[in-house]
Please model this.
Amino acid sequence: MHQATTTTGGPALSTQSRLGRRLIQLYVGLALYGASSALLVEAGLGLEPWGVLHQGLAGLTDLSIGVVSIIVGAAVLLLWIPLRQRPGLGTVSNVFVVGIAMDATLAAVPEVRGLAVRIPLLVAGIVLNGVATGLYIAADFGPGPRDGLMTGLHRRTGRSIRLMRTAVEVAVVVTGFVLGGTIGVGTVLYAVSIGPLAQLFLRVFAVLPASDGSTVVATGQPQGAILRP
Model:
């Protein structure tokens, strides 16, 4: 069995193959993230922190929650400028793909009633969110705008990422709740489970090792840079 690395074309094809997989992971992950957020909305038992804000603003402005997600993502991305953050392909794609996928899923999924359906929908949304996070983070095309905000604040202030994330998300949840966003058991369940789920699926979807033995995965400490698109 001959190795492609013995020719000049072998390594290039291998690199292209890995790049192709990473691109697929990126866009499938972002689309699934939007779909999972929509499932949490349909369950009506509590949203993830930024989802609470998006839902509150959607009710206030009469825009769809997906459109609000896009607007908020773009606004957060502007905050990267004074923080001297550089967006990647994944960062820019995140702004649009998640919101579009969210609205598409909400249009396709019928309204549900009764806890017998809403609870499984909530669990499915959280697990799918973990899968989606592992996919797009392992693709390594840059963090989402909201994650970049937190890591940027960490670098500029010297405070821990955990502190920056907590401060930002508490402010986001409180603001969203005041505006009418949904907080509930789903919000708590999401908070305690998304970290372990994301770490699990980040390992599952790590890009296969290159011919030199290296592995293409997200750089840095994943727990400090994931969990929000």
Notes: The chain has a mean pLDDT of 85. The two ends are 43 Å apart (CA to CA). Residues 80 and 149 are 6 Å apart (CA to CA). Residues 9-43 form the longest helix (35 residues).
